[in-house]
Every structure is written in structure tokens, then in C-alpha cells.
Design a protein that fits this description.
With 132 residues, this protein is mainly β. The protein has one domain. The protein contains no helices and six strands.
Length: 132
């Protein structure tokens, strides 16, 4: 399934998560399994437990590249862009208000494919999910 993830672009040219486990860069073209990292100030969301009783982490992704509550550029100069990904594995849908981008999901695995071109068509070739 095609999904979108808002990421930070750092001076080293790599893309990093916005808030959770934010020092781990994304690797384009490779499936990345989410890890569970409880973080102060954020709800501890998981996709359940594995056979050993460990929490299964999830990547926070959007069905559409829309998150009006998250700035694209900070006063510090940090830039944030949309990364296009494929998602698979366990997924959990969350409904949020349109002011927060609407529905989003946690996905067990993502494969970063590239960055969404500014002004690009997010729906081109997109698989629209019915339910997670």
C-alpha cells in the first residue's frame, strides 16, 4: 500500500523521523521494521505484542500527504518534507480531525521510495485503502 511519511531533512542530506527514534535515518529502497520506542510526551502506540511478549512498533504514516498541524520549516532552519513509502505487515488505522490531516495509520513495515515532488500528484498510482 502506498503511504506518506513526513520526515526531517538534516544537513547530512539524510531523512529522519520527526519525533520518535529521530536519530535513525531512513534507508531508501529497503523494508524497515518499526521498533517500539516509548517517548515522553507522546502516546505509547503499538500494534500488539509478538510471541515473546514484546510490543510491536509502528511507523506513523498518512494516506495522503496532508498534515496541516506540522510545520514544513522551523525557525531553526529544519526542513520537513513528504517521503513516499510502501507499507506492509500489521496496520492500524486512526481517525483524526481534518485539521490534523484526517485518517492516518501505524504500519509495521515501510519501504521508503523517494520524496514527493513539490506540487506532485499524491494520488497517481495510489492504492486507496478500504480498511486496515
Amino acid at each position: 500500500m502506498r503511504v506518506y511519511k513526513k520526515v526531517r531533512v538534516l544537513k547530512d542530506g539524510n531523512m529522519y523521523p520527526l519525533f520518535i527514534d529521530k536519530k535513525k535515518p531512513f534507508v531508501f529502497g529497503e523494508w524497515m521494521r518499526a521498533e517500539f520506542h516509548p517517548t515522553k510526551g507522546f502516546a505509547p502506540r503499538s500494534l500488539g505484542k509478538d510471541a515473546d511478549g514484546n510490543e510491536i512498533g509502528g511507523w506513523h504514516c498518512c494516506y495522503q500527504p496532508v498534515a496541516p498541524h506540522i510545520a514544513d520549516e522551523l525557525k531553526s532552519g529544519e526542513k520537513r518534507v513528504w517521503m513516499v513509502c510502501e507499507a506492509k505487515g500489521i496496520m492500524q488505522k486512526y481517525d483524526r480531525p481534518e485539521s490534523q490531516g484526517g485518517a492516518w495509520l501505524l504500519a509495521e513495515y515501510i519501504k521508503p521510495l523517494g520524496l514527493l515532488e513539490e506540487g506532485g500528484d499524491a494520488n497517481e498510482g495510489m492504492e486507496i485503502p478500504v480498511a486496515c
